Model the fold of this input.
Amino acid sequence: MKLSEHLRIFGRGIRLLYEMSPAYTVLFMLEALVSAVTPYVPIWFSARLIDAIAAGRPLRTLALYAALTVGLTFLMKLLSAALVRRRDVGSEALGYNADWRYAEKAMDMAYKNVEDRDTALLRERIRKETQTGYNYWYLEAGVAELIRFTAQIAASITLTASFFGVKSIPLWMKLALVGGVLLTLLAGMFLKSRSERIMKVFFDRLVDTNIRSEKLDSFIKGYSNGKDIRLYGMAEDLAARALRFGNEFCRELARTDIPASLLNSVGKIFDYGLRFGVYMILIFAALRGGVSVGSIAQYVSCVTLLIAAVTELVSTVQMTLLNDGYLKRYFSWFDIPNEMYKGTLTVEKRDDNEYFVEFRDVSFKYPHTDAWALRHVNMKFKVGQKLAVVGMNGSGKTTFIKLLCRLYDPTEGVILLNGVDIRKYDYDEYMSLFSVVFQDFKLFAVSLGQNVAASTDYDQVRVEDCLKRAGFDKREAAMPQGLNTPLYKDFDKDGVEISGGEAQKIALARALYKDAPFIILDEPTAALDPVSEYEVYSRFNRIAGDRTAVYISHRLASCRFCDKIAVFDAGQIVQSGRHEDLIADRAGKYHELWTAQARYYTD
Done:
């Protein structure tokens, strides 16, 4: 990575910190500066106090130096503590805002990216790296350390500058001290760089292991998984898997720790060897009467802090440059473009609901695949019709709906609404036309009413009407708090656990509450018992009203309630028409599927 790119990423990172928490950014910088200067206050005043004692100064002078040493140090520590308290509050805000940024990006991202495995793995890797301390967390620490060590270097040089004016110290000793400082710094830089490279390899090598370990941990702790773990005797196997992940981590850590510790030990030898040399030079100067006792303490402390500050500054710069790679990956998640064309045309609001939809030679491949999920699909239908989409699993039914709802755009061909390519319509307006219940719908751990409305605020009468039409009114009446009853126990111990069939009815009520012109039901009775399934079928027309209902199912009994049936097979529409016509075609796919299922249904 070039220096210009490092600077660009670093600058963008600073702006990111400030955007997420302006107060925190200012506070941690100020706290770093105060904590850097604080050690030099007692060093300077203590040196003056020692010299005053050696010179036999009056008690008043000694007391003044002592008071300044303790008092100023106390005030600096007090200020630092106050800044730390405020900084810690800001740190929590930073964490919450950072998590929300992930959520915002996920909701704004094109759906094809949400389903993309590479994108999901990128997010997981960034999350693990963030937990380890890289990207924006280490950026914050790095900026604070850059400020701290730069201030310490400036203060150390200021307080040791007079050392080189001491005439009793030979020039060669001064040069030897400078050489020793440079040698120690170069050795520290090299050793630190090697140590951090070892740790980077360690963390990079364990990214996949950490992701799998976390997924396993989440599965084990998920209370809804407890039944399967017990019934199928999975505990021993899961524990063994978790142990393997732990052992792998410990082996890698042990392998890394030994060379890193050796490098650190060599660095300490250089560091303490230089300190010994400083002591010897100052002792030599003191014996010749050229340096006061207080100055010896001051020089030793400042040279020690200077070496530590420069070493740490170089290490911080190296680590910051290394962290820029993690920041670059972090930003790459947020830089994923939403390539879904948003359109600008306003969707025509028709009182007569005269909307016409046409699939014109539509074909589609999912990203990163060569197989066609749909091929040359042609279909026309109008709002108000009840359309059934049937076929075996994997025949392309759900893909058809995803294209209709513009979760994806066709690879080939075009989808038209009233003769206009749907990509030309304003995206949000077009999406507002659809109420959908997918197979993998989700309910949330909030109240029943909020789940139906998909909102914190809702019309109570309207919610109850939708629940009644979906067949959930009796269950709702039995709930302890009615519409205010929380679902699940994720956030509320009084939450109610519901069955799969009950959840499906609530999802259907949510689709009805949106009151969109199109209602799409993807296997809406898959989790219902036979009686509830019959109720949904028999009330199908009343539930849909004057809306277009697209009904996806592999249970062909549902088709008898629809105006038109489209039969999918291997990504193509192989038949279309009414139930009576399709069942009469004994050579057709529909008759084949109906015959296979006939024994499960009666008139």
The radius of gyration is 36 Å. DSSP finds 22 helices and ten strands in the chain.
